[in-house]
Specification:
Layout: H1 25-41, H2 46-69, H3 74-86, H4 99-113, H5 118-129, H6 137-146, H7 158-169, H8 174-186, H9 188-201, H10 205-223, H11 227-243
Length: 248
């Protein structure tokens, strides 16, 4: 079954690395530039690149905030931040349903080329592979393609959970909401689904698209389990309803 999960029953020990961080903030900032160049080299559209870079920065900033609240060690925080920067490097080109697995492979290679230890690079790869989560839009689409029994490898540590939940959290921000609307508008299969819903409910395609993204955002809220993140996610959800009330 795709994607492979080589350690589905026990947490990977590499998530528990101790010691000082191997990367500086400057090195992490440079990685952001590497990701942007990677998008350009793979001919991702400029509008999407802009959306993706905002998203990556948001996930990184949320991890900075909530890893402190959750008292992460320096190493745990580093793994989460590197995963945040690199987690969507395979998005916008290739197979969307495989962007976690493919992105993990790419990230591991990039980090090793930078001289990062193999253990740290592997930990980042695992966090990226498992950011697809136990539910959400990618999982629903994967089940449609691979069958209802399909499951992505689920995070098994607080590092993996942090990456997944901070990624999910961005869907509830104005920037994240607009990004998903744009992605949905550009996907032919989603366009057909929205056209079908619009005809069935006698509403515009734009309205159908909005309602679909709104439903996805609500489901994202329900996937968050960390208390500090839940509280903030609920605040964002309230703001979404206030901002888009005329569309409801």
């Amino acid at each position: 079954m795709f994607p492979k999960d080589e350690s589905s029953s026990t947490p990977d020990e590499n998530y528990r690395l101790e010691g000082p961080a191997e990367t500086t903030k400057e090195m992490q900032d440079e990685l952001m530039d590497v990701v942007e160049k990677y998008y350009k080299d793979h001919e991702v559209g400029e509008d999407l690149i802009g959306q993706f870079m905002v998203h990556n920065a948001q996930v990184r900033n949320y991890i900075e905030r909530f890893s402190a609240e959750e008292k992460f060690s320096d190493k745990e925080k580093e793994i989460a931040i590197l995963a945040a920067i690199l987690h969507d490097i395979a998005k916008g080109w290739g197979d969307f349903l495989k962007h976690g697995e493919k992105g993990g492979e790419i990230a591991e290679g990039i980090l090793c080329d930078m001289g990062i230890s193999k253990d740290l690079a592997k930990s980042v790869r695992l966090a990226i592979e498992r950011h697809m989560g136990p539910d959400g839009y990618p999982t629903r689409k994967a089940k449609e393609k691979f069958g209802e029994n399909f499951e992505y490898p689920k995070y098994q540590t607080k590092v993996g959970q942090m990456v997944f939940e901070c990624d999910i959290l961005t869907q509830l921000t104005p920037e994240g909401f607009e990004k998903i609307l744009l992605l949905r508008e550009k996907d032919p299969q989603n366009v057909k689904e929205d056209e079908s819903v619009a005809e069935e409910k006698n509403i515009t395609v734009e309205k159908a698209r909005f309602l679909s993204v709104l439903e996805s955002a609500k489901k994202s809220l329900d996937l968050v389990e960390t208390e500090s993140i839940i509280k903030y996610a609920e605040e964002l959800w309230q703001k979404i309803q206030e901002e888009y009330h005329e569309h409801l």
